[in-house]
Amino acid sequence: MKLPWSTVAIVGVGLIGGSLGKALLTRGLARRVVGIGRSKASLAEAMERQLVSEVSCDLAAVSEADFVVVATSVGSIPRLLEAADAHVAEGTLITDAGSTKQSVVSSWQKRRRHRGRFVGSHPLAGSHLRGPAAADATLFEGRVAVVTPAASTPEEDVEEVGSFWASLGSTVFVMKPREHDRILAMTSHAPHVLAAALAAVTPDADRRFTAGGWRDTTRVAGGDAELWADILLDNAAQVTKAVSTMHGYTQRMLDALAAGDRRRLVRLLTTAKDKRNALGS
Q: Residue ranges per domain, the chain?
């Protein structure tokens, strides 16, 4: 791939989109970064923080780009991809940054005629914070980015989108959209469900006694509820399977408690400890 890009258009300049823009400009990977969004206030903040080089409320601004990233909530991505495709120059490469992939890729594939070339992707980076104020040029450094092509996607398109994320400091993996959703259900989506449940059931009067364990476990529950509702509903079947698997292991621990079986409980806790420690800090 020839770098830098002439013009990159980012649809959605919140945490992910804003971080993308800042990283591209900081690393000199794009001569122009156009931030596109609905909120004039948010776009103004993105300009003030120098996350992008220019902004527009008109999606037609993607017509000037040679690379487009849709970095909005999962529920809006298919619609925005279709709308952006109507404006891009023929052959323009498009990707997204959504947390689920099967529905996004399938929606694109259902359309027979495309002006652009689309490859789904998902940077495994983020925060419970959102908006331009949370943007960070180093957000993608040392992180994983997953590229999820359809079966018919040309290999050169996959490589180009992979190179985009690699240029931002990410390690790139390529997998099928359905496999991505299965894995992320266990590693991201189900943990959010459990964190939200713990935060919700803890009595208000008990919160003064929380320490590191409770706060670390529930941190992601502070994420935007509307955004997470979209993610969980879009991957409902896989999330349900993941939570059910976790429930099964929890039940084994409860059974050990009920039986007063210390040896079994230690064995179950040690398995979890070893798997967690294998990940590192």
A: 5-175, 180-278
| Domain 180-278 class in CATH | mainly alpha
pLDDT at residue 173 in the model = 98
CATH topology of domain 5-175: Rossmann fold (3.40.50)
pLDDT digits (tens, 9 = 90+) for 222-259: 999 999 999 999 999 999 999 999 999 999 999 999 99
Each residue's pLDDT tens digit, 81-92: 999 999 999 999
Instruction: Output the pLDDT for position 3.
Output: 62
pTM of the model: 0.93
Measured between alpha carbons, how far is 47 from 108 in angstroms, rounded to an integer?
Answer: 31
Alpha helices in 139-261 (DSSP H): 155-167, 177-184, 190-201, 212-218, 225-234, 236-259
- Element spanning 110, H or E: helix 102-110
Q: Are 5-175 and 180-278 the same fold in CATH? A: no
Helix, strand, or coil here: 147? strand
Residue 101, C-beta contacts closer than 8 angstroms, at least 6 positions apart? 120, 122, 146, 148, 177, 178, 180, 181
